[in-house]
Amino acid sequence: MVTIKQVAEKANVSTATVSRVINGNYPVSEKVKNKVMKTIKELGYRPNSIARSLKCNKTYMVGMVVPDISNNYFMDIARGVESVISPLGYSLIFCSTDENTDKELRLLNALNDKRVDYVLLASSTQEDHKLQKFIDQGMNIIMIDTSLENLQTDSVVEDNYNATYKLISYVIDQGHKRIGAVNGLLSVSTAKERYNGFCKALEDHDIPLEQSYIVNGAYNRRKTYEEVKFMIQRNINKLPTVLFAANNDMAEGAMIALKEMNLKIPDDISLVSFGDINLAELIEPRLTIISQNAVLIGEKAGELMLKKVSGNSEHDITKVTIPSEIIIRNSVKSI
Amino acid sequence: MVTIKQVAEKANVSTATVSRVINGNYPVSEKVKNKVMKTIKELGYRPNSIARSLKCNKTYMVGMVVPDISNNYFMDIARGVESVISPLGYSLIFCSTDENTDKELRLLNALNDKRVDYVLLASSTQEDHKLQKFIDQGMNIIMIDTSLENLQTDSVVEDNYNATYKLISYVIDQGHKRIGAVNGLLSVSTAKERYNGFCKALEDHDIPLEQSYIVNGAYNRRKTYEEVKFMIQRNINKLPTVLFAANNDMAEGAMIALKEMNLKIPDDISLVSFGDINLAELIEPRLTIISQNAVLIGEKAGELMLKKVSGNSEHDITKVTIPSEIIIRNSVKSI
DNA sequence: ATGAAAGCGCTAACAA
DNA sequence: TTGTTAGCGCTTTCAT
After folding, report:
1. B59 — contact with chain A (CB < 8 Å)?
2. Residue B19 CA to nucleotide D16 C1', Å?
3. A262: left (phi over 0), alpha (psi -120 to 50) or beta
4. Does the N terminus or the C terminus of chain A have fewer Cβ atoms within 10 A?
5. Dihedral through CA B121, CA B123, CA B129, CA B131, nearest 10?
6. Straight-line distance from the first to the last Cα atom of chain B, in angstroms, rounded to the nearest whole number
7. CB neighbour list of residue A198: distance below 8 Å, 6 or more residues apart
């Protein structure tokens, strides 16, 4: 690889001058500039970002840490982030924790060692004090999707509680009284908030919460598939009339389980979901859902990051909440 | 951030000694080692990978460049790669070219500047000489999914030609004579090879190739959706009896288009695909497909990279071809 | 077994 | 406008 020194020698100037023409941040005479640029072309010189990073304390890399790399929702967020940061020269390092606190901490350490400029974190740990350590060390973190109450940091999240409350209220309005839920890990803020909204809606409408209808900790498709089958078998004599899936993956798992058990949606059992499933256009019935805008979350997070690194509003902590709306389709039976 | 120098001072040793205990590559007395490790803990010191990279010419970063970040197929490859390289300390930088040659070249340049140790490239350009430049500059490239004939580089690809040939032969055996195809960009090797297998199967069975049934360049879901609708309208008086979609995304687009036009699969028109669609478990009818193993491709690519960086077989060029098999389900009508 | 010092490729303060 | 030089944080050679 050709270095700035080789360019300087060949062009008979100092490395400083070469640096100046590359960065255009100090005056250089036209004549010298042309000579240097010509030499750069000839030699095919490209500046070494590693050296630059070391010198300038800036890597133009941002880490994105999510619980599940195969969930489309997080991929969409990543696309949103990418679309706003990539034009400014930033690259994304994408990591998956598999909902594992240890792995999350390890990844955060690795990103810290790599001196990424920012990390966008969809955390699935509740150990805020451990995350606080990273922040104290000077790591820049924006929480996405999830948030941790006691953590002094920026975040871009959805209005989980209110959206779920509205969705479940709608379900109750349709006459449902036996209402089940498939929750993620309740240690994760999104899952917790959604479940809280769920419970509050039941409470406000005097609907009893039937513990046997609640599935906990089935955060991915396969686990949900299995757990929902258990739950249905367990309650085969008195099934819930409707199920609330707390995210897209779980809705998919639940649908597959119900289909396999020959329970038709919504005739035999209704289903609603927080977030839309894949390829919803092709799947019958169309699910009634809370629509998420994952790409938008990514864009907001990207913009927030850019604002922070540019030095504006450096120290105030910002919390962006993306509103969610209910999309009523045809997976809920009127009773 | 605390540096090695601060550790050295506090522990009353030289930076060299600290370096030695961190890396464990030179003898250090037990006593000194303990003292240093204790200091490292106390100070919360973490080595700066940027500085390391600069010194050692090794970044432990690998770039992955794909045409479409929202296609699950590439995400699965990424997961495969990640699973084998991450345990050895490598991180993935994930980039999407949107099938745009310029953007591809720009990303490659950026990754080159970042001095990534390797790049895994699913290229959608045919400008092999431009890619050759990167290789000549010393960039390490493994082609994944796609390959370029004239390029001296390792690759991990599928057996596109033969698999498609077999699938189309099966379709013909079912009595089909009016056979359409939805191709990606024929400039991309995978698309080209699949289409060649398609044509050869027709030829060998004396089936005429009806140009009007061929859709070209609709590489993503939305474009395919639109183009297939055009194609159907164009041929409304004499529809093809079967369609071959050259990848999962296009199969999805085609399915949505057909559904919207009230053409039932397989009663009104049959459909086969190279690669499986999302959430196939929930979508009727189950598609007859060539099954791909994207995760395996990723794993193979990751392993190949690891082998190369470890210095084994450094100079021979390896071509791994993953076999594909046909999965017959029920989207093809027997005529 | 340990320390001193050079150097990876670059930028920026200082001098000229 | 340009050059000299120090230094970013680390590894490693060469002495000791």
Report:
1. yes
2. 19
3. left
4. C
5. -30
6. 72
7. A164, A165, A168, A181, A244
